[in-house]
């Protein structure tokens, strides 16, 4: 129960009255010139919207989040990132929009003061309303309160007409109502029974990708709209013991030649792996992994063909991730989702690069042990465990807009599990969505290429004979919602993805 203390009068006082919905124990805060009542509570859950269209928009977001954390706002969730056409005043640059959910002990007007100071410190000046700004920070919700004073209205009466505000707001929820506070936020929605209905009335998911709004992932110097086409990640194993092509690309010359081939065949991303993660693989040191990795990355970055392409490092060591990014890699791909190195999440958060979090139980030496192959429902169990990894990453400071999810085909799974995952990707997304819509909307990567389960199904004991089965697996995954496929044979799979994308586009407009 909140405790209320009467303070001395100030310019902006509050009059607190019981809301008519007494079962909620809710209060409304109204302006009153003759008294102040302060809300005392250990902390309040808040939602804050972010917008920017001046300067380096993404850097502005990162700096604003940093300053918010320093000012007593603990950020617990991030929405997706949206690039949107300007509203109201249309003759200005496009905006980046998002929102964060967190907790704070700051009172509502203290919080407003903190956000206004951040805006000022980051260079925002008084200008035309709805005009250009380096950063715009707005309180969308504050606890269970409706607030109305001379300087603050929460929720703001015009958010309900703005898709660029409602879209990230919805991302911060789950399809399941997880608290009384969230239930109250749904009741604040005007002209709708809840926020989900409001979003549908505005146009819902049909707005994303149209009407000047697209969901993007920042990578390198670009904003990547991964929904525009399925991306091909070409595998480059710099190892002597990988299950499919171990020992083939140990020299820099051989590795560069293979990268050139994959790029010519349509690879969008090259994934460098210098440590085998096949079942029962022996672990090597950080130093040995870097000795294999860095010379190849340096050579590849000198190739003219790599311009406009993305580079990824497949590692579960944070020190390797850090060095790889310093040498020009754009993404970190961790088969453990951050579980094998306690520093991984913090390091990736500081690097400000996308993080591919994969599902695996144990480590490569133990992942296929009987105890790690026990599932009640593999898609639901994988979704729950993957969400836990994603939540840990987010709390460490990796925003949802920099996360990519991988259900881990072949890792802690038997043949039946892998088949169920390929056909159950929509179930995995919907199960994650119960807890976080933003995380469920992240790009989804699958890596079935040449794996043992394909050999078991098709009676192909040799890994390099499994390319046709890989094409079938990739096609199944993409038609069920995968956005990125990680493969050895780029040519065959790029052709398959071209057909998949054409089929999906026809289905969308049918």
TrEMBL record:
<dbReference type="GO" id="GO:0004156">
    <property type="term" value="F:dihydropteroate synthase activity"/>
</dbReference>
<dbReference type="InterPro" id="IPR000550">
    <property type="entry name" value="Hppk"/>
</dbReference>
<keyword id="KW-0067">ATP-binding</keyword>
<protein>
    <submittedName>
        <fullName>Folate synthesis bifunctional protein, mitochondrial</fullName>
    </submittedName>
</protein>
<dbReference type="InterPro" id="IPR045031">
    <property type="entry name" value="DHP_synth-like"/>
</dbReference>
<feature type="domain" description="Pterin-binding">
    <location>
        <begin position="230"/>
        <end position="498"/>
    </location>
</feature>
<comment type="pathway">
    <text>Cofactor biosynthesis; tetrahydrofolate biosynthesis; 7,8-dihydrofolate from 2-amino-4-hydroxy-6-hydroxymethyl-7,8-dihydropteridine diphosphate and 4-aminobenzoate: step 1/2.</text>
</comment>
<dbReference type="GO" id="GO:0005737">
    <property type="term" value="C:cytoplasm"/>
</dbReference>
<dbReference type="GO" id="GO:0046656">
    <property type="term" value="P:folic acid biosynthetic process"/>
</dbReference>
<dbReference type="GO" id="GO:0005524">
    <property type="term" value="F:ATP binding"/>
</dbReference>
<dbReference type="InterPro" id="IPR011005">
    <property type="entry name" value="Dihydropteroate_synth-like_sf"/>
</dbReference>
<keyword id="KW-0460">Magnesium</keyword>
<keyword id="KW-0418">Kinase</keyword>
<keyword id="KW-0289">Folate biosynthesis</keyword>
<dbReference type="GO" id="GO:0046654">
    <property type="term" value="P:tetrahydrofolate biosynthetic process"/>
</dbReference>
<keyword id="KW-0547">Nucleotide-binding</keyword>
<dbReference type="InterPro" id="IPR000489">
    <property type="entry name" value="Pterin-binding_dom"/>
</dbReference>
<comment type="pathway">
    <text>Cofactor biosynthesis; tetrahydrofolate biosynthesis; 2-amino-4-hydroxy-6-hydroxymethyl-7,8-dihydropteridine diphosphate from 7,8-dihydroneopterin triphosphate: step 4/4.</text>
</comment>
<dbReference type="Pfam" id="PF00809">
    <property type="entry name" value="Pterin_bind"/>
</dbReference>
<keyword id="KW-0479">Metal-binding</keyword>
<dbReference type="InterPro" id="IPR035907">
    <property type="entry name" value="Hppk_sf"/>
</dbReference>
<keyword id="KW-0511">Multifunctional enzyme</keyword>
<keyword id="KW-0808">Transferase</keyword>
<dbReference type="Pfam" id="PF01288">
    <property type="entry name" value="HPPK"/>
</dbReference>
<dbReference type="GO" id="GO:0016301">
    <property type="term" value="F:kinase activity"/>
</dbReference>
<comment type="similarity">
    <text>In the N-terminal section; belongs to the HPPK family.</text>
</comment>
<dbReference type="InterPro" id="IPR006390">
    <property type="entry name" value="DHP_synth_dom"/>
</dbReference>
<dbReference type="GO" id="GO:0046872">
    <property type="term" value="F:metal ion binding"/>
</dbReference>
<dbReference type="GO" id="GO:0003848">
    <property type="term" value="F:2-amino-4-hydroxy-6-hydroxymethyldihydropteridine diphosphokinase activity"/>
</dbReference>
<comment type="similarity">
    <text>In the C-terminal section; belongs to the DHPS family.</text>
</comment>
């Amino acid at each position: 129960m909140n405790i209320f203390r009467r303070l001395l009068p100030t310019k902006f006082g509050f009059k607190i009255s019981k809301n008519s919905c007494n079962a909620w124990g809710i209060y409304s805060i109204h302006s009153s010139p003759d008294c102040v009542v302060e809300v005392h509570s250990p902390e309040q859950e808040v939602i804050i919207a972010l917008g920017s269209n001046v300067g380096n928009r993404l850097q502005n977001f990162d700096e604003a989040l940093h300053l918010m954390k320093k000012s007593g706002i603990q950020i617990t969730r991030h929405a997706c990132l949206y690039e949107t056409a300007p509203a109201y005043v249309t003759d200005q640059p496009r905006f980046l929009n998002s929102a964060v959910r967190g907790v704070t002990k700051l009172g509502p007007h203290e919080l407003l003061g903190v956000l206004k100071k951040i805006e000022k410190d980051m260079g925002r000046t008084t200008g035309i309303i709805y005009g250009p700004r380096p950063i715009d920070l707005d309180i969308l919700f504050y606890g269970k309160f409706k607030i109305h004073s001379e300087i603050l209205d929460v929720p703001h009466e015009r958010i309900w007409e703005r898709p660029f505000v409602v879209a990230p707001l919805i991302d911060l929820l789950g399809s399941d109502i997880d608290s009384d506070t969230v239930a109250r936020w749904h009741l604040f929605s005007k002209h709708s029974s809840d926020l989900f209905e409001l979003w549908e009335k505005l146009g819902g998911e049909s707005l994303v990708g149209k009407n000047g709004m697209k969901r993007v992932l920042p990578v390198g110097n670009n904003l990547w709209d991964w929904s525009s086409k399925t991306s091909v990640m070409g595998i480059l194993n710099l190892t002597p013991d990988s299950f499919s092509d171990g020992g083939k690309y140990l020299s820099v010359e051989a590795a560069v030649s293979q990268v050139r081939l994959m790029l010519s065949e349509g690879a969008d991303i090259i994934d460098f792996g210098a440590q085998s993660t096949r079942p029962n693989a022996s672990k090597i040191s950080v130093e040995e992994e870097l000795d294999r990795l860095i010379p190849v990355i340096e050579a590849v970055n000198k190739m003219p063909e790599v311009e406009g392409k993305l580079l990824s490092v497949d590692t579960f060591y944070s020190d390797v991730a850090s060095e790889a990014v310093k040498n020009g890699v754009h993404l970190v791909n961790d088969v453990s989702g951050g579980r094998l190195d306690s520093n991984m999440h913090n390091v990736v958060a500081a690097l400000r690069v996308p993080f591919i979090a994969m599902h695996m139980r144990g480590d490569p030496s133990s992942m296929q042990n009987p105890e790690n192959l026990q599932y009640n429902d593999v898609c639901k169990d994988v979704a729950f465990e993957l969400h836990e990894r994603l939540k840990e990453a987010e709390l460490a400071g990796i925003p949802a807009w920099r996360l990519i999810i991988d259900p881990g085909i072949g890792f802690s799974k038997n043949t039946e599990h892998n088949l169920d995952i390929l056909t159950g990707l929509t179930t995995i997304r919907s199960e994650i969505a119960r807890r976080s819509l933003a995380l469920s909307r992240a790009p989804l990567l699958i890596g079935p290429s040449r794996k043992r389960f394909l050999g078991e199904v098709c009676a192909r004991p040799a890994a390099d004979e499994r390319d046709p089965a890989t094409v079938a697996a990739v096609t199944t995954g993409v038609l069920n919602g995968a956005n990125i496929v990680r493969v050895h044979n780029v040519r065959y799979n790029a052709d398959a993805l071209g057909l998949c994308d054409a089929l999906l586009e026809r289905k969308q407009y049918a």
